[in-house]
Design goal:
Blueprint: H1 3-19, H2 26-37, H3 46-49, H4 51-61, H5 63-72, H6 77-106, H7 112-131, H8 146-156, H9 166-176, H10 181-206, H11 213-244, H12 247-267
Helix pairs in contact: 1-2, 1-11, 2-7, 4-10, 4-11, 6-8, 6-10, 7-12, 8-9, 9-10, 10-11
Membrane topology: Multi-pass membrane protein
GO molecular function, one term: undecaprenyl-diphosphatase activity
Protein name: Undecaprenyl-diphosphatase
């Protein structure tokens, strides 16, 4: 584990923490940055495994609320519906993730050009949705019905294609299904917990015998940096979205996608 690799791990951890919960696709940013930095770990697990740091950031910020939901779960129907809703939304990703894991990691994660195209297309979709005049029917997470949660979970599966964005897919889906911007973003936070923890567990188990001490050291560095950066994002994102909407993220996606395509063409990679 040399100085250059440590520096790359810090940069990638910074990117992960800052982009995981905004609709710009943290995976796309990590894969493109790793590609141009020449950074590689066994099975390309780094991008998936450091996401657990971002998950712990959400747990930290929402610890009080999660504790309240857990303690009232046996007696308060609203708390039970919320927990069941998150699990129902998580279910489609479990099924597709298990069935298509090898294809996704072998082919989709290895195509920087596809990722750039998906960044641009996703940015255009986000711009279009942000400009729609929608009348929200749901403004509180605790009011989300189980069918609504399941449908949002189906939208999340679009993020199996790197560059689409897990948070972007769930937020766009929630908005189109009647949620307001703030609660859509917040539901994306909570849905990230089982989804990203599941992806972490699957990748870690699959490559547990191939990861070496250098891989684990770099993953640990990226994990810590992503945790710290994600804390900042989770604490500030809801207010930003309420004031500015999602257009700034859409333009960022388009810019990064176009720059990436130009760089790939110039470098011939």
């Amino acid at each position: 584990m040399d100085i250059g690799s440590i520096f790359d791990a810090v940069i990638l951890g910074l990117i992960e923490g800052l982009t995981e919960f905004i609709p710009v696709s943290s995976t796309a940013h990590l894969i493109l940055a790793s590609h141009f930095l020449g950074f590689h770990t066994t099975g390309n697990t780094f991008a998936v495994l450091i996401q657990l740091g971002a998950v712990l950031a959400v747990l930290s910020v929402y610890a009080k609320r999660l504790t309240e939901i857990a303690t009232t779960f046996p007696t308060v129907p609203e708390s039970r519906r919320f927990v069941y809703g998150v699990l129902v939304a998580f279910l489609p990703a479990v099924v597709i993730g298990l069935l298509a894991h090898d294809f996704i990691k072998t082919y989709l994660f290895e195509s920087p050009r596809l990722i750039c195209i998906m960044l641009v297309l996703g940015g255009i979709v986000l711009l279009a949705v942000d400009k729609l005049v929608l009348k929200p029917r749901y403004t509180r997470l605790m009011d989300y019905s189980l069918p609504l949660c399941f449908k949002i979970g189906l939208f999340q599966c679009l993020a199996m294609i790197p560059g689409t964005s897990r948070s972007g897919s769930t937020i766009v889906g929630a908005l189109l299904l009647g949620a307001d911007k703030r609660s859509a973003a917040e539901f994306s936070f909570f849905l990230a917990m089982p989804t990203m923890a599941g992806a972490f567990a699957l990748d870690f188990w699959k490559y547990r015998n191939e990861l070496n001490s250098s891989d684990l050291g770099l993953i640990t560095i990226g994990f810590v940096v992503s945790f710290v950066c994600a804390l900042f994002v989770v604490r500030s994102l809801l207010g930003f979205v309420s004031r500015h909407g999602y257009a700034p993220f859409a333009w960022w996606r388009i810019a990064i996608g176009v720059i990436g395509l130009i760089a790939l063409t110039v470098t011939g990679t």
